[in-house]
Amino acid sequence: MSETVEAVGTEQDKSGDEENAPTGADLLVQEGDIAGDYLERLLDLLDYDGDIDLDVEAGRAVVSIDGGDDLEKLVGNRGQVLEALQELTRLAVQQETGTRSRLMLDIAGWRAARREELRELGRTTAETVVSTGEKVRLQPMSPFERKVVHDAVAAVEGARSESEGEEPKRRVVVLPDDED
């Protein structure tokens, strides 16, 4: 006796799944939830305390971990461990959702504090460049850091910025607006 087995799942079933797939803000909330679960498991494995906060800002999921004494170890020197952990978290989210994540991770308020430092650096450097007419090359920075500096420089009339070099030594150069 032979039986014919029909394939399970039709084109109609597949299109139905697409209709139920999260989009836009729902996808960002889902990314935050997946990242939160992933990071909660990591904290448990490390036996670290921390409160995980999920949010959506400027079209990206934002996950913050605060409150634990050991959390600074997860930031590392100049945020290097934080950057690596953010990439791992993005990969975990991508594995679950099938889409590339732009999730932003902050631990112990380090990224928020660094953002303020960089805004000040960008503003004061741009003001110096405008007053002296001389370009200034800043120290190498991560993509996150360069973006914050570029945004701060753009807010100062008479100055502009560009990036030069290759990772990991890519840096921001601040120039007078009229210099090429």
| Discrete helix count | 5
Shape: elongated
Beta content: 15-25%
How would you state the average pLDDT, rounded?
87
As an assembly, this protein is single chain
Give the biggest beta sheet.
Answer: 3 strands, mixed
By helix and strand content, what is the structural category?
A: alpha+beta
Low-confidence stretches: 1-20
Cα-atom radius of gyration: 22 Å
Quote the distance from N terminus to C terminus.
82 Å
Keywords:
three-stranded mixed sheet; alpha+beta; three-stranded antiparallel sheet; single chain; 5 helices; 180 residues; 19% strand; disordered N terminus
Please describe what this structure looks like.
This protein has 180 residues and is an alpha+beta fold. It contains five helices and six strands; from the N terminus they run ααββαβαβαββ. The strands form two sheets. A three-stranded mixed β-sheet has the order 1-2-3. A three-stranded antiparallel β-sheet has the order 4-6-5. Strand 5 and strand 6 form a beta hairpin. The protein is elongated, with a radius of gyration of 22 Å. 26% of the residues are buried.
Summarize the structure.
This protein has helices spanning 11-20, 25-46, 80-97, 110-132, 143-154, and strands at 51-57, 60-66, 104-107, 136-140, 159-164, 171-176. With 180 residues, it is an alpha+beta fold.
Set down the secondary structure blueprint.
Layout: H1 11-20, H2 25-46, E1 51-57, E2 60-66, H3 80-97, E3 104-107, H4 110-132, E4 136-140, H5 143-154, E5 159-164, E6 171-176
Parallel strand pairs: 2-3
Antiparallel strand pairs: 1-2, 4-6, 5-6
